[in-house]
Amino acid sequence: MSVNKEIKKITTHTIQKMKAAGEKISMITAYDFSFARIFDASGIDIILVGDSASNVMAGHETTLPITLDQMIYHASSVVRGTNRCLVVVDLPFGSYQGNSKEALNSAIRIMKETGGHAVKLEGGEEVVESVKRIISTGIPVMGHLGLTPQSIYKFGTYTVRAKEQAEAEKLKKDALLLQEAGCFAIVLEKIPATLAREVSESLHIPTIGIGAGMFCDGQVLVMHDMLGINTEFKPRFLRQYLNLHEQIMGAMHQYISDIKAGSFPSEKEQY
């Protein structure tokens, strides 16, 4: 008799238990149904529907232009492709800053219209009120500290953050504030590994690093970078696991040449 083994869904609780057990957490970005389905089947723990869609899907220079409606479109596509991993959705720029009521409304729209499991927002002390308000309604929140791409015009550059003592101290304080506010995890982006270690060890919630070294409780990369679809972006922290750009170009050249030569479609490929 075949036993239908139930798929164990990853929840925010699972992520918490992973940190406690010292098991590293794997996270990747996705923006559509087809890739989400592959990633979910691969055994990834978390899919982040990142506002990086603004760059990799829409071709914008920064993450600022993407709208809440566009994020909802991407997130609902991803959710339809998953049945076991945790799906976290970025609140886009302008949908939560400076107004905790607007932040709550944005988070509610994401949860209702996408079927996602949690939202992520950038910042520390400045957004704590929004974080608390969202969590008070039962929506899980992931924080994001260090290099916060939505603040690119404030920073003026995408270089490593918190190398100076004052910024490092603020980041440590912000991490504790986010934990106290109820965040279930925090992304640490582009900060020194020693600082990331200190923060990770001071928190009971998991940290997920991107360019934050080996001491975080998990790691995340943008799928287009990790799979080598993008070729321009080559920061030190990126490990490229495939060169899809080259493979796709090769396939396209072959396809074009087969059409031009009249060898596609063949007799077998017609009705």
What does this protein structure show overall?
The mean pLDDT is 96. The chain has helices spanning 12-21, 33-42, 53-56, 68-80, 100-114, 128-136, 152-155, 165-181, 193-202, 223-226, 244-261, and strands at 25-29, 46-49, 86-90, 118-120, 141-146, 185-189, 207-210, 218-221. With 271 residues, it is α/β, with parallel strands linked by helices. Helices cover 42% and strands 13% of the residues. It has two domains: 12-240, Phosphoenolpyruvate-binding domains (TIM Barrel), CATH 3.20.20; 243-271, no CATH class. Helix 4 (68-80) runs parallel beside helix 5, helix 5 (100-114) crosses helix 6 and helix 8 runs parallel beside helix 9.
> How is the CATH topology of the largest domain named?
TIM Barrel
How many structural domains in the coordinates? 2
Query: Mind telling me the CATH class of the largest domain?
Result: Alpha Beta
CATH superfamily of the largest domain: Phosphoenolpyruvate-binding domains
Low-confidence stretches: none
Largest sheet: 8 strands, parallel, barrel
Distance between the termini: 42 Å
Following the backbone from N to C, one meets helices and strands in this order, namely: HEHEHHEHEHEHHEHEEHH
Helix content: 40-55%
- Give the overall silhouette: globular
Number of helices: 11
As laid out across the biggest beta sheet, the strand order is 1-2-3-4-5-6-7-8
How large a portion of the residues is in β-strands, by DSSP E? 5-15%
